[in-house]
Design brief:
heterodimer; A: alpha+beta; Butyryl-CoA Dehydrogenase, subunit A, domain 2; Butyryl-CoA Dehydrogenase, subunit A, domain 3; 3 domains; globular; B: alpha+beta; seven-stranded mixed β-sheet; two-stranded antiparallel ribbon; about 15% strand
Amino acid sequence: MNFEYTTDEQAFRAEIRQFLKENLPRDLSEKILRYKQLHREDWVRWHKILAAKGWSVTGWPKQFGGTGWTPTQQHIFDEECAEAGAPPLLAFSVRMVAPVIMHFGNKQQQDYFLPKIVSGDHWWCQGYSEPGAGSDLASLKTRAELKGDKYIVNGQKTWNTLGHYADWIFCLVRTNTEVRQQEGITFLLIDMKTPGITVRPIKLIDGGETEVNEIYFDNVEVPVANRIGEENKGWTYAKVLLGHERVGIAQVGNSKRELKKLKKIAATELAGGRPLIEDSRFRDRIAALELEISALDITVLRVLSAEAKKGNPGPESSVLKIKGSEIQQTLTELKMEAIGQYAHAFIPESFELNWHGEPDGADEWGTASSRYFNVRKTTIFGGSNEIQRNIIAQRILGL
Amino acid sequence: MDFELTDDQTMLQDSLQKFIQKDYTFERRNEILATPHGYSAEIWAQLAEQGVLGIGLPEEHGGFGGAVEAMVVMEQIGRGLVLEPFLSTVVIGGGMIRDAGTPAQQGEILPKLIAGECRMALAHHEKGARYALDHINATATAAGNEYQLSGKKTIVLDGAVADLLVVSAREANKKISLFLVDANAPGVKRTSYRTQDGRNAADVELAKAKARLLGKSGDGLSILQAAVDQAVAGLCAEAVGAIEAINRATIEYTKNRKQFGQPIGRFQALQHRMADMFVASVQAKSMSLMAAAYCQNKDAALRARKLSTAKAYIGQVSRFCGQQAVQLHGGMGITAELATGHYFKRLTLINQTFGDAAHHLGLLSDAILLETR
């Protein structure tokens, strides 16, 4: 056991830091660090910068373009990117559909899709949840009927994140209604330009720009060649993807950066003319949050190390999901509370970088409450935290 | 970075685990509990024989390993609810002699300690101190090459079975120094009692008791702080062992206990509680690893911050898992017949040792205030 970073690891960190200093565009990091809206071109621009360096899919196996980094190196990379304010990579492409294509896709699918994820030319979105299939995902009803060499897809998906930007969607569809729910599901890759697909935005309580959508499928034709693996085996593939999704939700690097930000806000905000941070009742809550983040920071590394040995995230990834999501919520809650009365302000224009109207008061006050409202999603998506507790109880504790 | 135990450390863990399973069963522990001080000379000798009493101590005196080995041992002690004074003797007492003792003191005491012939206790706490290390009224008066100590120490953990005490006191110049005092020397009056968790303690009254300086004169507080930091890491590991054991016992109990025609572990309300206990135990283990990694760090401020983080977190988790385990066992949780209640008591008292969760959260909170200035 060794908690010190080795000389090599320190050199690695310096290399990452130098790269970010030279290559992370200032306007992008400003957007992240000041909570501005990211647009499609922002995500893609950063992805392509990383791709040019060979770092867009760092966690992948080497044969598909990954770096072969150790879990510690990966952790350092994530931490430095978060600290510098680098935009996130699109999890649906890089962390979610890609492992499924690698493990269960055929050679043609791997050769066609994976390089376009590496390069950032394909934007993927997720077609899992339906209005009637949330936590009980396996009860999904979107139908796919095989006609010749095509599936005809009809139904509705929901909670589709950033689907309005997407080139492709990975979908769970029902191909057999006669068997146990889990055994009649097929995993399809669908081109978003196919006729019959309608994307409709869902307005959220944060008041921000579109983030999630409903997607309607009306006699959408999908070539059989775009099916992953076998018909009716989709649930097995889907579960692998869900494990990867849960690890990605932990976001401990971001939370460490935001904890620093919270302390800065509390040190700047005045309460009766004194810095808020001098109020031990408020400060103790920051300390309690720091405990959770410190513990999760190490737990993430432990889970990643175990994952590197086994190849796939185990059910322990549910621990990361529960803790990571709760931490993100507490962070936004405390940041909102830190600005007191300014929490009322709602200035949608302030979501954009070119807005210069910030008056007196807390930094970024115009969007603080919006972020609090938005981040309530983290304990709901990716399998609600109650579903994670079911997974732990059944698959780890054997209850 | 690397979280794996070495082969030697894994062997140490396995052999202790086997020892506890075979020779430190719940029934055997109950017999030891029934002795006057909750201590077994036979077990102590067996631990010495296995080399466990040399953990973290210099090889030239028969010791081996360091903070990680101590963590491994303390985790098993937690799992087995071992009553014998390993922490007081080896981690705290032995550690202080290793870090501050003269070569002569090391040569005299460490071989005996490692052989199981010298049990130690830290006589530090005084009335009104709570968890402050510098609240000391006991006095030390120089008398030739030696000192004479007077004052009153309370809640000296493992004090009833100790042969050698480390005592904190103020010298004539008001500076704090540490002293070695023979527990049976003239002028040392011990009032022994049992502790809530089945161990022993003593109040110690010193009246011109003969004492030898441990470490440099006036260095007492920093030596004490270093020892307490290592003890805190040890307690964190012990708590993790006990938390994992109490969680496991709870799962087993709810799988077997039937109500409404089914095992109560089938009920989602209980499953989610146990899932939360599991999540907490994983996080607690991470904190214990961190405590072991930093407990001997030379940077005192960094070390203090890491250890307060770990102790506060593990204190919270100990309380949560302990209380929930009792609740999920129903009435059986508050009987002395199951191990669960005993784990709960030990976890509760670990939290009350060298600063509880609220105390350490406060220290971290104060460090946060300083860092923003």
